[in-house]
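Section 5.1 Outputs to date
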Amino acid sequence: IDAGLVFKVMRVNKIAKPLKFYEDLSAFKLFTLDVGLLNCMAETDPKDILLGESIFEEYQGAFTQQFIASITRSLGLIPYYYTKENAKLEIDFLCQLGKVLPIEVKSGKNVRSKSLMTLLQKHPDLTGVRFSLKPYDMQEQFTNVPLYLAEAYLRDLMSHEGHV
């Protein structure tokens, strides 16, 4: 962390502003500075991940989350995540952009977002985003954004909230 090669994403125990107040200091995820460092640490051949080798299906989600975590940090956002202790509800990332933005990350073609949908039903004041391989699609309470547009999308949200 001190060398800047990895960073912590803290868990929050409540989805409310300011997220910093609801940090759970006993739980966090570590992410590398970028996807390339994670790839080196995992000792994988880049083509195996990019070409979708079946042995890496389980790791594609980790690499995709790493990609989004790196983007949020590069934009100056502080990502958090949310889980309930004894429940299956998990929100991959939460960022504070004026209001709290729940972010779901999907690496494959199956983009069911049960946790995100459950959260948005409980918090009708929130709108979320799902980054995936699917095309851009605005729905009632969340927007699906292709992974390749993630940085541009977040940068646009930040400019509307006065962060840039």
